[in-house]
Design brief:
The chain has 281 residues and is α/β, with parallel strands linked by helices. It has helices at 24-37, 51-60, 81-95, 112-124, 138-146, 167-176, 197-205, 211-221, 233-240, 249-256, 271-279, and strands at 3-5, 11-13, 15-18, 41-43, 69-74, 102-105, 131-134, 155-159, 179-183, 225-228. It has one domain (3-279): NADP-dependent oxidoreductase domain (TIM Barrel), CATH 3.20.20. Helix content is 41%, strand content 15%. This is 2,5-diketo-D-gluconate reductase A.
Length: 281
């Protein structure tokens, strides 16, 4: 496993296991399997409704707590200073932990300034080891870095995949000293991601690698922390098996040429999208 050093000196695995859309009844075993094949970064969120099951897996996995890097995220209905403090206390109880390695503000709406201020206080108290944001576009990230913080975010977790490469956003994060983290690296298979001829060709060139392995390696070589999700142990093992090959400059350019600069899911700057988040808060 490779690691990156965040702007506060914390070491973070570059490849992690995501638990979004894994039902609670399947989460514990999935996390146990992921840890067993080598994952040490486990990503959950209040919105995923599976923090408790992630915590059960952490307790039973047999790996020292200090070797694990656990992330959760604060949902919109827990924004504001006091609400955020209360929600983190609840997340700690569900996870069964004394501290959380990373906590993110999940969406760039509502009173995320108040919530971020609460994260800063918990960070200074040692209850959270790193803090950050998720789905913050360059303008909002720059805003919170310059005007609304004591502590610059360590992470911004955003959608990154070959069709939405986020190159300009990564440059903005690097300018602000914020580490990029990728969700949905496979785009949930949209646009024929796993059947893409370019990705298949690059995989064949590099020893018969799958398109999924090519995508993960592409992100690692861009120094982007990436989350991969599967409920199948053999696929988990396949996804983590990306540290014994490298893409050359031609490979990287071919994948870059797949980028069309558009989200495969939803645009957080679209007013209709913002309205939808009110319904699920």
């Amino acid at each position: 496993m490779q690691f990156l050093i965040l702007n506060n000196g914390i070491k973070m695995p570059i490849l992690g296991f995501g638990t979004y859309q894994i039902p609670p009844e399947e989460t514990k075993q999935a996390v146990l399997d992921a840890i067993d094949v080598g994952y040490r970064l486990i990503d959950t969120a209040q919105f995923y409704k599976n923090e408790k099951e992630v915590g059960e897996a952490i307790k039973e996995c047999g790996v020292d707590r200090e070797e694990l890097f656990i992330t959760t995220k604060v949902w919109i209905n827990n924004y504001g200073y006091e609400n955020c403090l209360d929600s983190i206390k609840e997340s700690l109880e569900k996870l069964g932990l004394d501290y959380i390695d990373l906590v993110l503000i999940h969406q760039p709406f509502s009173d995320y300034y108040g919530a971020y201020s609460a994260l800063e206080d918990l960070y200074e108290a040692g209850i959270i080891k790193a803090i950050g944001v998720s789905n913050f576009y360059p303008d909002r990230l720059t805003d919170i870095c310059l005007f609304n913080r004591r502590i610059i975010p360590q992470i911004n977790q955003v959608e990154v995949n070959p069709f939405n490469g986020q190159y300009a956003a990564q440059a903005n994060m690097e300018k602000n000293g914020v580490q990029m983290q990728a969700w949905a690296p496979f785009g949930q298979g949209r646009h024929g991601m796993f059947e893409n001829e370019t990705l298949k060709k690059i995989g064949e060139k590099n020893g018969g690698r799958t398109p999924a392995q090519v995508i993960l390696r592409w992100l690692v070589e861009r120094s982007i922390v990436v989350l991969a999700k599967s409920t199948h142990k053999e696929r988990m093992a396949e996804n983590i098996d990306i540290f014994d090959f490298a893409l050359d400059e031609e490979d990287m350019m071919e994948i870059m040429n797949l980028d069309n600069g558009e989200t495969l899911f939803f645009n957080h700057q679209n007013p209709e999208v913002v309205e939808r988040f009110e319904d699920i808060s």
